[in-house]
Amino acid sequence: MKPESIVLAVAGAFFGLIVGWIIGSQQTGPSRFAPAPAPLQQAAPAQSQAAMPQTQAPRQLDQAEAQRLQTAAEKNPGDAKARVDLGNLYFDAERYPEAIAWYLQALKINPNDADVSTDLAVCYYYSNDPDRALQQFDASLRVNPKHTKTLLNQGIVMAFGKQDLKGAAAAWEKLIGIAPTSPEADTARKALQGLKTAHPELTGK
User: Fold this and answer.
1) Are 153 and 23 in contact (CB under 8 A)?
2) Which residues contact 63 (CB under 8 A, 6 or more apart)?
3) Strands (E), the chain
4) What digits encode the pLDDT tens for the residues 117-176?
5) Cα 75 vs. chain centroid, distance in angstroms?
6) How many domains does the chain contain in total?
7) What residues make up the domain containing 149?
8) For residue 184, what is the domain's CATH number?
C-alpha cells in the first residue's frame, strides 16, 4: 500500500479533536497532505467550514522513474511490483486516473493484495466516487477482514462521503475491537468521540 496513502485533516463541528489523520498500510516514506473531495464541505474529508487544513502540494511526477517502471512493467506482464510503484508515483502526483489504471493492473496479477486494493479505493474516493470506494474497501476486507487501514478509511468515507454516521461508527467500533492497541484504533476512538459528541443519538446504539 502507498505509504501514508490517505491524509485527512478534519476540523469543525464533528471532529474538532482530530487534525492530521494519516492513514496508510505501510509506515515508510514522508507524510503527504492531500485534500479529498468535499461533497458536503462542512465536515467532509480534509475540509470543513470551521477550519481548513494545511496541505502540501502534490509531488511532481518523476517522469524518468515513471518511464523506467513502465518499461519494466511492459517487459514483464507478471510484474505486480512495478505496477504498484507506478500507481504510487501517480498517486503522489494526485493523478488519480493513472494511479487507478496501474493499481487495477497490479490487482489482476495479485488480486489478494489488500494494501493495493485499499489504495485503489482511496483513489476512487479522491476521484469523487465514494460508492465505488466503499465497494473496493469491501473487496479489501474480503481478502483481509482485519485490515485496520481499510476499516478506518471505510468509516471516513461512510461518514464524510455518504453521511452514513451509523455505518461509520460501526466500522470504527469493529476496528477498535479487532486491533485495540493500533494507531488506527486510537484515531477511531477520537473519531467516535467527536461523532457521538455531535450526535448523542449514536451513543448506545
Assistant:
1) yes
2) none
3) 6-8, 21-23
4) 999 999 999 999 999 999 999 999 999 999 999 999 999 999 888 989 999 999 999 999
5) 30
6) 1
7) 6-202
8) 1.25.40.10
